[in-house]
Amino acid sequence: MQLPSSGAPAAPTSPAPVLSPEVAEALAAGRPVVALESTLLAHGLPRPDNRAAADEVEAAVRTGGAVPATVAVLDGAPHVGLTADELDRVCADSDLAKLAVRDLPVALALGRSGATTVSSTALLAAAAGIGVFATGGLGGVHREAADTFDESADLTTLSRTPVLVVCAGVKSILDVPATLERLESLSVTVVGYRTTTFPGFYVADSGSTVDWAVSSPEEAAAVLATRRGLAPGGVVVANPLPDDEQLDPALHDRVIADALAAAARAGVRGKAVTPFVLDHLHRASEGATLAVNVRLVLRNAELAGRIAAALAGVPR
Ligand code: PSU
Ligand code: MN
User: Fold this and answer.
1) Active site annotated at which positions (predicted)?
2) Which domain holds residue 23?
């Protein structure tokens, strides 16, 4: 299939992101690069296991045929592509801030450090000219949103940022149908990977469906390239775990209900909710949710690598 131009349209930010040497070289040569977020490492996975996961996720991008570029803010500088020492720092620091787009100006202006969420990673990836990005699950509409108004800035950012995000749907601690409705209102393109069943993060089926499926990395790349020519905003590629790799759905429903009740009892609010609930799940399931979480991120990273390779026109 002949794809339209593979380079990302310029979406410069000031200050410009600091690129690692490998990422700078790959981008200059037009080779495929995949952005990775750091919030899932710093706030979604427990220390010290998160450090090994960081390497595994980067290796999965390479298996897919692209160069990994983990994104974070270090001492006020936005970094796209981290060295091993920088990954050590992001994974070890228990005080690292969680930075969505609205937090970036403060961290950059005041010389602070932080992990980037889907929203801020998407912004910085686009600024660096990277079109493809992998995460675990998108943020979205929280189950109590009718009372709390808690909806992740991931959604509004994807409505204006020209990136393709590979994810296992949205985190199943959220209100999945409401999140899909918001993605529709925000005109974010959503496709399933080889299925119209919308995944439920830890489980293969969220109970919701999407209208479209792509059947190959080339088709996903063509959708992104076409979106860029049409309208601002991004593409979500929802990549479910295979049935035999998902969390047992009965265990899933039980531990999620417990974790949400614990968050409510503890009075956890705002951006602390997602890390609190993920941590509770990892402990309540004796590591089962953690293993599945890492597995789905690895699968998404590899698929993102293949999509980035297709976008760059690299034959595989
Ligand atoms: N995917 C994971 N684990 C995570 C996240 C995604 O497997 O921890 C993070 C992402 O960084 C996402 C954030 O942007 O959770 C959403 O947080 P909030 O609900 O506060 O917007
Ligand atoms: Mn929130």
Assistant:
1) 37 (proton donor), 171 (nucleophile)
2) 18-311
**What is the per-residue pLDDT across 117-170, written as a single tens digit (0 to 9) for each?**
999 999 999 999 999 999 999 999 999 899 999 999 999 999 999 999 999 999
From 187, 183, 196, 192, select the one nearest 219 (Cα to Cα).
Answer: 192
Binding site membership of 120 for ligand 1 (Cβ less than 6 Å) = no
Q: Is 25 a catalytic residue?
A: no
Q: Confirm whether 196 is domain-assigned.
A: yes
Give per-residue pLDDT as tens, 17-72. Answer: 999 999 999 999 999 999 999 999 999 999 999 999 999 999 999 999 999 999 99
Helices (H), 111-212: 118-128, 145-148, 153-158, 176-185
The ipTM of this complex is: 0.93
pLDDT band at 12 (very low <50, low <70, confident <90, very high): confident
Interval 294-314: pLDDT, tens? 999 999 999 999 999 999 997
C-alpha 32/C-alpha 1 separation (Å) is 17
Ligand 1 near 152 CB (within 6 A): yes
Instruction: From the candidates 58, 171, 219, 302, give the one annotated as an active-site residue.
Output: 171
CA distance 206 to 208: 5
| 3 domain residue, yes or no | no
Q: What pTM was computed for the model?
A: 0.94
As annotated, the binding site includes 98, 118, 150, 152-154
Q: Structurally, how many domains does the chain consist of?
A: 1
Q: Is 10 within a domain?
A: no
What does the block give as tokens for 264?
A: 């409510």
Q: Which CATH number fits the domain that encloses residue 76?
A: 3.40.1790.10
For ligand 1, atom 15: residue with the closest CA: 139
The verdict on the CB of residue 161 being under 6 Å from ligand 1 is no
Maximal C-alpha separation, the chain:
55
Q: Which atom of ligand 1 lies at the shortest distance from residue 142's CA? A: 19
